[in-house]
Amino acid sequence: MISEVQPLVKREKSRRNSACTPAFDMATLKESLAMAEIKAAASTTHRKVSCSRKTRTEQQHLAYVPPKQLLMYLVRMGSFTAIPKAKGEANTDDDLDFPPTSAEELLARCSAQLSGLPPPFKRRLRTTGKGQTASVRLLQWNQLSQTLGSQNDGFLLCPPVALDWSCRRWRLLEELVRHSPDILCLQEVDHFPLLERALASLGYSGHFVPKPDSPCIYLPNNSGPDGCSVFYRAEQWQVVGEVRSRVLEVWHVQSNQVVLAVNLRHRGTGREVCVATTHLKARSGALLATLRHEQGKDLLDWLETVRQGRPLVLTGDFNAEPSEPVIRAVTEQLESAYKTDDTEYTTWKVREQGGEQKNTLDYIFHSKGVEVTATLDMPTEEQVGAERLPSLAFPSDHLSLVADFLLL
């Protein structure tokens, strides 16, 4: 069964819906943003100095909170709410059929469609030396929205053909299937109908939750909002209860980022696990790092109510380096499947704005009750190549992460 999960959105009288244009005074906001960045940076520095002699509650009072109007702008920064929504295009994947098939047959189909292009990256699965019996394989990936990647992100070195949807969709499917995952956690999904049909042909079920105000819907010929998805092998997993989602909050204001969570029971062993995926706010600076930290706290608190004591696997594009407060907060409760000190990058790109960006932003976290037995290495700089990402060999600016784990 495939489903689209609608996030719970509060209908506050004071809040405009996404069809309305917020009355932002941009000149004033620019001044406010500059001042807010200074205050957020100062607040962060002060909290680092004070952390040894303050309680957590006292430290929270030191955190900088933006004024309401600025906060309302920040939670929609990256969307284009000052312009009308654009008309979407008809389903561009109606030309494809996906009858029941095997992974080998689908990969052969992908290979035929990608004839003449470089092969995918060869990557090595690094084992921990622990037992491999009855392990579960999970793939985490920000697969890059087609609308954003082709119209908004400004990848300077990416060959245009690498972003052509008629070609790129086969690269995406190839990467999803070739690692043989049991569970897939995806972000920036804006062609969910294609994924649901292709993966259903291999026996996967899945769920999708869109961002409430996706920037995709303001760009021409979009295929709808982007969001997060979770897929799993239906013959292996049974959903326990309802599939849950949430619009993450910052200082009690809903943001534009979501989390999707599903409790799964293994049909063979009866063991249960909560799998959740998210995509936190992008952009650099102390102010946005503070906002991500607030999202992270809301995320962790909410997941406690969803997992109800089950082991947890939390994945996503957190848009934060390991040194950021949000990652430090997460790793106080959960462990990273990838050792952050050894992971040099999970994204590497060159953009019109921001230039070359080489960062670790993507993670697979897990709680007690989950033991990681292997992870997939990142490709080398030589493999990535001078064009960086995305490229003819890889369809996203973010690399996929793969982890094998045991449920204890």
Description:
The structure is a single chain. Helix content is 28%, strand content 25%. With 408 residues, the chain is of the alpha+beta class. The protein folds into two domains: 49 residues; 323 residues, 4-Layer Sandwich (Deoxyribonuclease I, Chain A), CATH 3.60.10. The chain has an eight-stranded mixed sheet, with helices on one face. Strands 7, 8, 9, 10, 11, 12 and 15 form a seven-stranded mixed sheet that branches. A hairpin with a 3-residue loop joins strand 13 and strand 14. Helix 1 packs across helix 8 and helix 4 packs antiparallel against helix 6. 42% of the residues are buried.
Largest sheet, in brief, is:
8 strands, mixed
CATH topology label of the largest domain: Deoxyribonuclease I, Chain A
Instruction: Tell me the structural class.
Output: alpha+beta
The CATH architecture of the largest domain? 4-Layer Sandwich
Q: DSSP helix count?
A: 10
How many beta strands in the DSSP annotation? 17
Indicate the CATH class of the largest domain. Answer: Alpha Beta
